[in-house]
Write a structure and sequence with these properties.
A hairpin with a 4-residue loop joins β11 and β12. The chain has 3 domains: 331 residues, Alpha/alpha barrel (Glycosyltransferase); 89 residues, Sandwich (Immunoglobulin-like), CATH 2.60.40; 81 residues, Immunoglobulin-like (Sandwich). It starts with 9 loop residues before the first helix and ends with a strand. By secondary structure, it is of the alpha+beta class. Strands 16-15-18-19 form a 4-stranded antiparallel β-sheet, with no helix packed on it. A 3-stranded antiparallel β-sheet has the order 7-8-10, with no helix packed on it. α8 runs parallel beside α11 and α14 runs parallel beside α16. Bound molecules: calcium ion (2 copies).
């Protein structure tokens, strides 16, 4: 099949400078852009938008730019932008596979299945490793860049759909990057594109369990890291072509530092600050793309260190990009100086992949469960990531009763995992619980429900928190037994020494056990043991 986009009108060639199209020799010979001065005090949209909605509108915008005429040689491809309707490329199209597959992953919606299938038709006709260029050293970055997206798209697609039929495509992209190291000292774009490809290559190698690919990724990553350290102002703090040094930070986070996690926090502290807060408007027609890569770099720095300052910078860039959908059609232009009739599918995909998806993922909740305990329901969950940007609220609905009140009085924070005990439940009644993850700037995602029938004794026994707690010399615990029998109640100090004990026989049901113990101030563990099973509560003695 002849690649139609290679035949372009003169007008389109002139306009093509604003797209992710391959650069000319002359353009490639440009040095790194000057390091960007940090900029503060810009206006932001953070906290004034819903990232889920921005993502949804963004990928709908991308969908409107797919070639859907089956007789068109570019069938299935994604058009570059509103002002570049005859430019259709593989990178855009691979990005769309990622966008829509992730949407299905997030929502279960199959609305884009046909779009994804069409994108694959285009991609297989114009695979990443056959992109134009390659003839000269200055053009080789383009295939490397595209193969990075090829791996990313195929991985997401395969994980979401379970369809392995495009795995050969992803593997070929990976092998191409592994076998065709380009000269990364020669051109700035070669460096950034290799940094991007190397993060994908390492992840892909891990994903498919290929040791040789992983070794290639690490060898390349070490070169990228050494060069970045040699000249961080340009290789981390600058930009070239459609890329910026955010790709360097992200690429190393996903490759070298996956292998050497102990080195990452110190490295980030030293080098991540080379990234600017925001590339100012008007410096080039691609500043939104550069900012998107810096946003991705800040996300990596945050996940490497848990330092909230990086999250703030990530969030600021995200808000800045979102604010540029001034005509509210879901798409954004390539530059802050761009107009709303020049929105680009690829920059919109960048905003979704590098920004909105990250925000949504950081509000992710996993392992949500609601369990009946004597006298309460225990709701538990975990954050999807160690470092994330959420506090939580718990909502309860009684089945058959209208209303879904919030049941916690203060937002639930601190390190994951989380537990919340809801005592306002009636034995035998059925409840549903939802957990709302609330982001730092006010947007939220809700997960659930987890269903539970309160009361009864699903466990063979239960132990309540002591009351009062803290206590001085006298406190009480409730114990509950499914069947009558012997139960041992003991108190241990934190060194594991038993400091109080009572063995007794109890009937089935709930019993209040009074504890009189004159213990030194401190934290103790109260253990109820029935047969081989034990339940433990922390208690605090104050004097
Ligand atoms: Ca727009
Ligand atoms: Ca528009």
């Amino acid at each position: 099949m002849k690649r139609a986009r290679i035949v372009m009108a003169a007008a389109a060639l002139a306009a093509a400078a604003a797209a992710t199209q391959i650069w000319t020799e002359e353009e490639m010979a440009r040095p790194f852009g000057p390091p960007v001065a940090p900029r503060v005090g810009y206006s932001l949209a953070a906290g004034q938008y819903d990232p889920h909605e921005v993502y949804e509108n963004g990928i709908a915008f991308v969908a409107r730019w797919q070639v859907t005429d089956p007789n068109d040689p570019n069938y299935g491809g994604i058009i570059e932008g509103e002002d570049l309707t005859n430019v259709i490329q593989t990178d855009n199209t691979q990005e769309s596979v990622w966008d829509w597959s992730r949407w299905r992953d997030m929502t279960g919606s199959r609305e884009y299945d046909d779009y994804v299938a069409r994108s694959w038709i285009y991609i297989l006709n114009f695979p990443a490793w056959l992109e134009e260029g390659w003839g000269s050293e200055s053009q080789k970055y383009y295939r490397i860049y595209n193969c990075g997206w090829g791996m990313r798209a195929e991985m997401m697609y395969r994980h979401v759909t379970g369809d392995t039929s495009h795995q050969d495509y992803g593997l070929t992209c990976a092998q191409f990057v592994a076998d065709n190291a380009i000269n990364i000292t020669l051109y700035p774009a070669n460096f950034y594109c290799t940094a991007w490809a190397v993060g994908n290559l390492y992840e892909y190698a891990e994903d498919v369990g290929d040791a040789a690919l992983k070794a290639s990724a690490l060898a390349l990553a070490e070169q990228v890291k050494a060069l970045a350290e040699e000249a961080p102002a340009t290789r981390i703090g600058s930009y070239s072509w459609a890329m910026s040094g955010g790709a360097t930070v992200w690429g190393l986070h996903e490759s070298y530092f996956r292998e050497h996690p102990g080195e990452e926090a110190a490295w980030m502290a030293q080098y991540a600050p080379y990234m600017p807060e925001l590339v100012p408007a008007g410096s080039n027609t691609w500043d939104n793309a550069w900012n998107a890569w810096f946003m991705l770099g800040y996300y990596a720095a945050y996940h490497a260190t848990g330092d909230a300052a990086y999250w703030t910078r990530f969030d600021n860039i995200a808000g800045n990009l979102v604010a540029q959908d001034t005509d509210d059609d879901g798409g954004i232009p390539a530059s802050q100086a761009g107009t709303s009739d020049a929105d680009q599918s690829w920059v919109t995909s960048y905003m979704c992949y590098m920004g909105m998806d990250r925000i949504l993922r950081d509000l992710g909740v996993k392992d949500l469960a609601a369990e009946p305990r004597p006298g309460e329901v225990r709701v538990s969950w975990a954050a999807e990531f160690e470092y994330h940007a959420a506090n939580y609220n718990v909502y309860r609905e009684e089945v058959g009763v209208p209303g879904r009140p919030k049941v916690n009085s203060q937002p639930i924070g601190g390190p994951s995992p989380y537990e919340f005990a809801d005592p306002h439940v009636a034995v035998g009644h059925k409840y549903r619980y939802w957990v709302e993850a609330e982001g730092a700037t006010g947007f939220s995602r809700t997960f659930g429900p987890a269903e539970v029938t309160a009361g009864g004794f699903p466990l063979s026994f239960g132990l309540s928190q002591n009351y009062p707690n803290p206590f001085s010399t006298h406190t009480t615990v409730d114990i509950a037994l499914a069947e009558g029998g012997e139960a041992d109640l003991s108190i241990y100090d934190l060194a594991g020494r038993e400091v109080w004990r009572r063995d007794d026989n109890y009937g089935a049901g709930k019993h209040a056990v009074e504890i009189d113990a004159d213990l030194p101030a401190g934290v103790y563990l109260c253990q109820l043991k029935v047969g081989e099973e034990a339940a433990v509560r922390r208690m605090v003695v104050v004097k």
